[in-house]
Specification:
It contains four helices and no strands. By secondary structure, it is an all-alpha fold.
């Protein structure tokens, strides 16, 4: 009985963590930022692209811990990234849709999930 309760509490914690991380990412996406309306090649190397890469990498790992599926974790992170960029473009005058941000989100998901699996970190979370 204790093992079942421990397993349920671990599953619940993973889902709650992923939920709050998802909300945190949303809040970070609606905070006013620099309003850049045109694309230039130097935009690829801005610090916010690194932020997108990192935050969506961690978000994908939290989704992976919930779903135990590479496909679902990357898929939901990508859909969430599209949602956030769309919301920025439609509802916030101080933010805009940026395809390069979306690319950084997707690459962060791919790299972090790949590294997580390559380093076999999933064994520490009882996912095997």
């Amino acid at each position: 009985m204790n093992n079942i309760l421990l397993l349920l509490s671990k599953m619940f914690f993973k889902k709650i963590f992923a939920f709050f991380l998802t909300l945190f990412v949303f809040v970070l996406h609606v905070i006013p930022g620099h309003d850049i309306m045109i694309f230039e090649w130097d935009h690829l190397f801005q610090i916010d692209k690194l932020f997108h890469f990192l935050i969506f990498g961690f978000l994908s790992i939290s989704y992976f811990l919930c779903f135990n599926s590479v496909f679902y974790s990357i898929f939901f992170a990508l859909i969430y990234g599209v949602f956030l960029e769309t919301v920025q473009g439609l509802f916030f005058s101080y933010r805009h849709f940026d395809i390069i941000d979306l690319l950084a989100d997707f690459l962060g998901s791919l790299v972090f999930i790949s590294a997580f699996l390559k380093l076999k970190l999933n064994k520490y979370f009882n996912l095997d």
